[in-house]
Amino acid sequence: MNTLVIRLIVFACIFGGAIVGMLLGPLLPKDHLSSDSKDVVKMGTGLIGTMTAILLGLLVASAKNFYDAQATELTQQKATAAAPGRAEILYDKIQALAPQNDIQHSLQNKALSIAIDLGKTRWLMLEQATNSVSIPLVVALVFWLAVIFCSFGLFAPRNLTVVATLAVCAISVSAAIFLILEMYTPFGGLLPISDAPLRSALEHLGK
Questions:
Q1: Which residue intervals of 80-101 are DSSP H helices?
Q2: pLDDT tens digits for range 56-104
Q3: Which of 53, 97, 119, 150 is an S-S bond match for 21, by CB 3.0 to 4.6 Å?
Q4: d(Cα 83, Cα 192) in Å, to the nearest integer?
Q5: How do the domains of the chain map onto residue ranges?
Q6: Residues 187/193, Cβ–Cβ less than 8 Å
Q7: What is the spatial distance between Cα 95 and Cα 88, in angstroms, rounded to a whole number?
Q8: Cβ atoms < 10 Å from Cβ of 63
Q9: Model confidence pTM above 0.70
């Protein structure tokens, strides 16, 4: 699913939670809105907020590690002077060579080793690309945030300033989740890994 669509869904869930809280507030009996009730709700949402902060931190760290790993592997392919997707073709061409002496045999074996390493790196990158962010974690995070915003709306005054503030907060949180998801697509989106090193390698390879 497109990360922008996911961001909109996240925003709708979080801001929707705040609106639900604001709608429920007037319907609750007065004793449910007492200071004691508010204290219990605040403690509960404080606990959820702590768990949300921990989970959000884990997602950020996971996304950053994934992004860095992909960037490192792309740099490694640049260092071996070949492009992703061409390792198998390069391997076949090296195999077809007919070395005439020991030095050429040695160079062929070294080239074959490099081609094999390139193939392994390419498949590693493809495998990592399939292991994206955990959807259950994102769902849990969004649910917790919706609960927190619902508690905000439950006791908040019903005016435009409060609604606008909650909307801005919901946009900020959904933007953070959006950026996390963007880091799981390092070859596209808003935070792409630069292909300049690889293009430079290909230019030198053709000379």
A1: 87-95
A2: 887 778 777 777 776 666 655 554 544 644 556 666 777 777 888 888 8
A3: 150
A4: 17
A5: 3-76+133-205
A6: yes
A7: 11
A8: 20
A9: no
